[in-house]
Amino acid sequence: MKNSQSYSLYIITLLLSFLITILSLASEVSYAENNTTIVENQLAFIQNGQEKNFNYKPANITKDTIIIISNTTSHYHNEEEISLPTTYDNYIISAAEKYNIHHNLIHSIIKHESNYDPKAVSRAGAQGLMQLMPKTAAGLGVNEPFDPKQNIEGGTRYLSYMLERYNGDIVLALAAYNAGPGNVDKYSGIPPFEETKKYIDKVMTTYNQLK
Questions:
Q1: Which position among 113, 153, 164, 194 bears the catalytic label?
Q2: What is the 3-state secondary structure (H, E, C) of 153-200?
Q3: Residue 74: what pLDDT?
Q4: Of the chain's two ends, which shows fewer C-beta atoms within 10 Å, N or C?
């Protein structure tokens, strides 16, 4: 009797282990699909002309108006001040003025996209300071994604599209920059991806630390 009970317990344990393995694999597949969707959404935004053929009125977004428009930014407020490299300041300030985006927001994105490495390449293939996917970069007119000036110009341009699309809401714009506007629209807000949530938190914390 005891042997029978032990055998039954053993079988149940095996079945539970098998079930946990299946669920784990399903989660990994889902994550992979989400990552694919992120890339596809970003490319679709460029390729399907949703950017109005790149003819648009830049959103007049400054640090002050962003905080007023997006109340959620208060969640990321941090009194601690930091300083970041000034190597690419000329390019950053130029792009910031062109697209009416606060230069500290561009700095914050570069910090957490590439940590100021102009040759950075992600596992997904995103390139340069602001981590542009090759086809996205091409659609933005960036011929040399590893060229700091072109990369910052293209990345800031794309960010300006996202800010315009989400009415100046910086948090949603960052979510779209990271996860693709398709996912932001799909979930009617910040997508439930841990990577995206952490990305927004890090960028916003740095942005609020810059004075």
A1: 113
A2: HHHHHHHHHHHHHCCCCHHHHHHHHHHCHHHHHHCCCCCCCHHHHHHH
A3: 45
A4: N
Residue 9 lies in a domain: no
Q: What are phi and psi of 57, to 5 degrees?
A: -95, 115
113 is catalytic: yes
Q: Is residue 56 part of a domain?
A: yes
Q: Tell me the per-residue pLDDT of 15-58, one tens digit each, with 9 for 90 and over.
A: 666 665 555 444 433 333 344 344 444 444 444 444 433 333 34
Q: Into how many domains does the chain fold?
A: 1
Tell me the β-bridge partners of 5.
none
Select from 84, 64, 74, 66 the least CA-distant residue to 159. Answer: 66
Residue 165 sits in a domain whose CATH number is 1.10.530.10
**Contact 188/142 with Cβ under 8 angstroms?**
no
In sequence order, the β-bridge partners of residue 127 are 121, 132
pTM of the model: 0.69
Asked whether 151 and 118 are in contact (CB, 8 A), the reply is yes
Q: What is the Cα–Cα distance from 73 to 42, expressed in whole angstroms? A: 24
Q: What is the CB neighbour count within 10 angstroms for residue 63?
A: 17
Q: Which tens digits make up the pLDDT trace of 76-89? A: 555 566 778 999 99
